[in-house]
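ok so for the tutorial part 2 we go from a plain amino acid sequence to predicted structure tokens. step 1 is just haveing the sequence, like this:
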Amino acid sequence: MDLRKLRYFVGLVEAGGFRRVADVLKVAQPALTRQIRSLEIDLGVQLVIRSKAGVTLLPAGQTLLEEAREILARVDRLGELVIQLQVSEAAGEVRIGLPSALADTLLGRIVQTVKAGHPNIQIICREGAADAAIQVEEGDLDLAVVSVAPGPVRYTCHFERLLKEQDYMLSRDTGALQAKEISLPELFAKPVVLTPLPNARRLHLEKLAAACGAKLDIVAEAATMSAQLELVSRGLCVAVLPLSAARVMQRGGISMIAVKDLISYRLMLVNRSPLRPVATGVVAEVLRSMFRVQYQDRAGADNGAGSI
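step 2 — the prediction. this is what the tokens look like for a chain of 308 residues:
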């Protein structure tokens, strides 16, 4: 027996009429009428009486309704059990791309969380890739966390916002602790460590400096956030980092000050849709949960200066 016909029949009874159930199930009314009539032919018995007031169940229809509900409930539960089995037995490699700061500080927690529930999943991390979204699009990565400037996203893969974050200046200057934010000219007057090119945030910073008629005093270039923080902690320069990086690169005696007039970037999870295989979906959910707990709850509280 066609389960679709049973669903139409149960929907018809619960909605109380052909027109109403056709709207709910997004099925043309004549097609729905044919399906119910076909079900009656299959069973060799009339199930309902149709009238202007709606439909009335006949005894055979009442019996079928009770059995059909139980059958459909079992089928739905079976589908859920299969999905749960797939998730519990998820296995294989999942290739993820992470910004350097997040890889430095969160990769261990990501692997530990995934392994706790899914020991047969192996995570392969590629950190600091400037073209991570393209690598997802081309199939070289399964997932990536990327920083995206405001505006339309010009990729065919799926983007899901994890966090909207502002850039902060990190400095060892104790006087900076008194400031809630710093202007761009004040920032450009300080020696700075930057991420090597290509890097969207650095390019944006250099364009702003040129627009202000300033030249950046670049003390050093460092690809990892931990290396940048080491230079800052020695008092050699300041660093400009997104909130997600600044909050996790914790070290005493360093102040964190918001930078005025810097655009807010979106930290986004990139994947191909739909998520396949199941292991990729498992890792994606771990990343979502981790960002909800680790960053999003804090984002609203990080308005201005703070010590990290």
